Amino acid sequence: MERVYNFSAGPACLPLPVLEQAQKDFISFGESGMNVMEMSHRSKEYQAIIDEAEADLRDLMHIPDNYKVLFLQGGASMQFYMVPLNLMTKYKKAHFVSTGAWAKKAIAEAKKVGTANVVASSEDKTFSYIPKLEAPMFTTDADYVHITSNNTIYGTRYTKLPPSGLTLVSDMSSFILSEAVNVADYGIIYAGAQKNIGPAGVTVVIARDDLVQSASDDLPHMLSYKVQAENSSMFNTPPTYAVYIAGLVFKWLKKQGGISQMQKLNEEKAGMLYDFIDNSQLYSNPVNVADRSMMNVTFVTGDPDKDAAFVAGSKKAGLTNLKGHRSVGGMRASIYNAMPEAGVRALIAFMQKFETENR
Ligand SMILES: Cc1ncc(COP(=O)(O)O)c(C=O)c1O
Q1: CA-based angle 246:157:111, to the nearest 5?
Q2: Higher pLDDT among residues 359 and 277, named by residue
Q3: Which CATH number fits the domain that encloses residue 167?
Q4: For the chain, what percent of residues have pLDDT higher than 70?
Q5: Ligand 1 atom having least distance to the Cα of 153
Q6: pLDDT confidence of 39, banded at 50, 70, 90?
Q7: Both 153 and 286 in a single domain?
Q8: Residue 58 within any structural domain of the chain
Q9: Which of 211, 237, 255 is the last residue of a domain?
């Protein structure tokens, strides 16, 4: 079976060279005589793997020294709870911008810890835009502001940060490593790995030292940034294989020229696709143009039967997982870093053919 172009929103496609390297290492990683999965997380070999993964991520994102990098479990969803638990220390309150289903889940979890104040929402238009944010919305009686940098389901992304002056926390699950960010603008960045980092099972948290230290000592160990940081992500057994694959992805990214080069490619890939949609007689993209995601490109034909025919036909053509999220319908092409430009070109060629046949 030939490999397909997999447009899944996550778990998503991985770079082929990463899979090939993992295949080479499968029976014996280096001189170890075993797969990384079989290795003690306390071994010298494994320590080198996780240390290198961290060093490469620091390099790629220019992470300042006063930030910890944690490799945790529980997905981004666990961070929805872990962030308020660790950060709602003074006011027991945080400001949220509600830009989609994931933001709403983060809000729901935060409410279990303290006050989750929704300063703005784009739910009135099915989350098809990023609300305009102004300084007075962000009263200073809050421990932090939470945003979702890229909204995987609706295909929107922030291009400007909230003007709050408060600690900024971002769910970057479908945004991280896709374009340059200044880590120092954030208190906490978190991301489930299964889109732009590696396999599901590891969650990356980048946390400023003072925030790592600020939580109460009474928190359950596994939910405490302080305990996780003090134990260098090895309070318990980390997701060893997922970290190893993430490490290979980081090396691949460095070889591609790092984040600036990736951003350029992502702009080109997304630009090509949006241009095609904008010039088409059949497809449209419902998102406010200025807020369009580079990672998740949504489009509809306006006819659910045609959408279904598109999804079925594209699958036959080796272009998989193009069905939009069940809550919005239509189509969604997730074009993370690992999706080659050739995949986007193949998609556009199919869209063109389908349009000619279905006009
Ligand atoms: C923006 C965003 N946040 C959170 C999640 C949930 O991630 P996890 O399944 O790792 O908990 C997703 C998953 O698709 C997502 O896209």
Answers
A1: 85
A2: 277
A3: 3.40.640.10
A4: 100
A5: 16
A6: very high
A7: no
A8: yes
A9: 255
Q: Which atom of ligand 1 is nearest to the CA of 172?
A: 1
User: Which CATH number belongs to the domain containing residue 330 in this structure?
Assistant: 3.90.1150.10
Give yes or no for residue 86 CB within 6 A of ligand 1. Answer: no
Confidence (pLDDT) at 215: 87
User: How many Å lie between the centroid of ligand 1 and the Cα of residue 103?
Assistant: 10
Domain match, 126 and 205 both: yes
Is 252 among the catalytic positions? no
Residue 11: inside a domain: no
Looking at 93, 195, 226, 323, which residue is catalytic? 195
Residues 339, 293: one domain? yes
- Cα-to-centroid distance, 327 and ligand 1 (Å): 15
Task: Please pick, among 102, 251, 252, 269, the residue that the annotation labels catalytic.
Answer: 102
Q: What is the pLDDT of residue 75?
A: 98
| Residue 90 annotated among the catalytic residues of the structure | no
Angle subtended by helix axes 101-110 and 75-87, to nearest 10: 40
One domain for residues 281 and 247: no
Give the distance (Å) from ligand 1 centre to CA of residue 152.
8
Beta bridge partners of 319: 5
- Distance from the CA of 173 to the center of ligand 1, in angstroms? 6
Check: CB of residue 170 under 8 Å from CB of residue 188: yes
Q: Is the peptide bond before 239 cis (omega within 30 degrees of 0)?
A: no
Contact predicate 99/130, CB 8 Å = yes
How many structural domains is the chain composed of?
2
- What angle (nearest 5°) sits at the alpha carbon of residue 310, between those of residues 16 and 319? 10
Domain shared by 225 and 262, yes or no: no
Q: What is the pLDDT of residues 276-303, one digit of tens each?
A: 999 999 999 999 999 999 999 999 999 9
Name the band, by pLDDT with cuts 50, 70 and 90, for residue 359.
confident
Residue 144 lies in a domain: yes
Residue 4 domain-assigned? no
Q: Is 75 close to ligand 1, i.e. is its CB under 6 Å away?
A: yes
Average pLDDT, the chain: 97
Range of the domain at 296: 258-358
Confirm whether 171 is a catalytic residue. yes
Torsion over CA of 190, 196, 197 and 200, rounded to 10 degrees?
80
Q: Return the residue whose CA atom lies nearest to atom 4 of ligand 1.
A: 76
22 and 69 both lie in a single domain: yes
